[in-house]
Specification:
The chain is 60% helix and 7% strand. It has helices at residues 3-25, 29-51, 60-79, 85-112, 123-151, 164-184, 189-207, 215-237, 240-264, 268-273, 279-282, 297-305, 316-321, 324-336, 355-362, 373-376, 398-401, 452-464, and strands at residues 309-314, 340-345, 370-372, 385-389, 420-425, 445-449. The chain has a six-stranded parallel beta sheet. The chain binds NADP nicotinamide-adenine-dinucleotide phosphate.
């Protein structure tokens, strides 16, 4: 081995260690930033190692690619707002998966067009390459549709038609059938391109029937496919860092999907084939509920100002209103008056994993005040006022009390156990599940209508004068 090979192996080893430490760091808000920097440094080492590769004959196109990719990446990092993070992530997955698919196609082309010896294209290599191309292609189009739905370019509602699941499963079976055929007959060029085309089409058809609000789970699943496609690319190219990083990506994405489904008490198959949020499920669970009790700004201000303990429960409405700074200001004013302030964070509040954590961190809310669902629930019976800020499903008591509710069994933040509940929302709008929320009709609950940011800002002044 010459120094170049040693350097490449060393940089790949270092990159792999940094990826693992980075992932570990991301598991807690306090270490998340450090984890992110470690993973970034790891990626830089992997790129530097790859640039030293002896197979490179010219750097021209590599430099063009690096400049183009860095410019796009930097622009996206600077200009894409925090609220558009889900669709930005979908776009990144599409790029990553397309890159994996392109590498596979280029390799296949090299073998079948005499650039590499055809005899070397054995069953194992074709298996890894086919897997990479199939997953890479369906992830590319699937992620683009997810991006379109989240950005509002493609209709967000589940697009459902009769026999859809059977049609999709048949398409997948044919694609996998071609893939298996290619393992035994790698030189069959036409089946190869048909498999490629079908995989692209399958990606579109897989995501179209899923509602936009389920996109985070879908994206996390597609992320895991992109990771596994990259791992397969690593096998095809004999590149260890790709195998390790792809496997880490693949399995962490899969585990995240499972965790998100568990927090919603739904199965992956229900997310993929259930068309949740469509008209059929949206009306279920509605019934005679009584009336909602509207409260005034001044009443709420007095309640908050003279409380001993207040718990804020943020949800999707906090994100749309961008009310994170306003809630922090209100918390400051309350703390100055000696009120204990805590935040109850539901794992699927908002529309992407960690949505509330990211927003509250942006507003410099101390981590020590953030309590996960299991931690905050035992505290609620001793809480004077729970303030629900643009949350709905994650505080819906039907999930706990009504076994026939579509969200039955989903763990909730049990704000109805506190002495008083104030709900900040704009009107009678429903949450992501489309279900009525009995919490809003309970005697303990007062509704304070208006945009969350506007209401919280006004409350700051009202509490100061209370
Ligand atoms: P939610 O159930 O979607 O409810 C959000 C509420 O916010 C609405 O009822 C809406 O009522 C209110 N709202 C909207 N804009 C507002 C504004 N500007 N000011 C004040 N209120 C506003 O939200 P959630 O309780 O956070 O629950 C999240 C849901 O998303 C769960 O069902 C979860 O399963 C699902 N989900 C989450 C993820 C994830 O990763 N986090 C992924 C997939 C699905 P008005 O219209 O009346 O204002």
């Amino acid at each position: 081995m010459n120094w170049q090979t040693y350097f490449i192996e060393f940089s790949y080893l270092l990159a792999s260690i940094l990826f693992i430490l980075g992932l570990k760091g991301l598991s807690h808000p306090e270490t998340a930033k450090r984890g992110m920097h470690m993973a970034e440094f790891g990626m830089m080492m992997a790129i530097i190692g790859t640039l030293m590769h002896f197979e490179i004959v010219s750097y021209t196109w590599i430099i063009v690619g690096l400049l183009l990719g860095s410019t796009l990446g930097a622009a996206m990092g600077v200009w894409v707002p925090m609220t558009a993070m889900p669709q930005r992530t979908a776009l990144s997955h599409a790029f990553g998966a397309f890159a994996a698919a392109l590498v596979g196609i280029a390799e296949y082309y090299s073998y079948t067009h005499g650039f590499k010896p055809l005899a070397e294209l054995g069953q194992v290599k074709m298996g890894a390459m086919g897997f990479e191309i199939m997953l890479g292609s369906l992830t590319t189009t699937g992620s683009l549709i997810a991006f379109g739905k989240l950005q509002g370019i493609v209709p967000g509602k589940p697009l459902v038609y009769r026999g859809q699941n059977i049609f999709n499963m048949t398409l997948l079976a044919v694609t996998i059938g071609l893939f298996i055929y290619l393992i035994f007959v790698p030189t069959a060029v036409i089946p190869f391109y048909v498999m490629l085309g079908l995989a692209f089409v399958f990606g579109v058809l897989l995501v179209l029937p899923i509602g936009s609000a389920d996109m985070p789970v879908v994206m996390s699943l597609l992320n895991s496919y992109a990771g596994l496609a990259s791992a397969a690319t690593g096998f095809v190219l004999g590149n260890n860092v790709l195998i390790i990083a792809g496997t880490l990506d693949g399995f962490s994405g899969f585990i995240l999907s499972i965790l998100m489904c568990r927090a919603m008490n739904r199965s992956i198959t229900n997310v993929l084939f259930g068309a949740f949020g469509s008209a059929a499920t949206a009306t279920a669970g509605e019934g005679e509920q009584g009336t909602m009790r509207e409260v005034s700004m001044d009443d709420v201000a007095v309640q908050l100002a003279y409380a001993s303990k207040v718990v804020f429960v943020p949800g999707y409405g906090l994100a749309t209103a961008q009310a994170q700074h306003a809630v922090r200001e209100l918390a400051n004013v309350l703390e100055e008056r000696g009120v204990i302030v805590k935040y109850g964070i539901h794992p699927v509040a908002g529309r992407m994993p960690g949505h509330m954590n990211v927003l509250l961190a942006e507003a410099n809310v101390p981590y020590s005040q953030l309590y996960e669902l299991e931690q905050i629930n035992p505290e609620l019976s001793s809480t004077d006022v729970s303030v629900v800020i643009g949350a709905n499903d994650v505080v819906n008591p039907d999930a706990r009390d009504n076994p026939s509710s579509p969200i039955a069994g989903m763990p909730i933040i049990e704000v109805d156990r506190s002495k008083s509940v104030i709900v900040l929302k704009r009107g009678q709008g429903k949450g992501f599940s489309g279900l009525e929320n009995p919490l809003f009709f309970k005697p303990v609950t007062g509704m304070l209508y208006g945009d969350a940011k506007d209401t919280l800002t006004k409350l700051v002044g009202a509490v100061q004068h209370a």
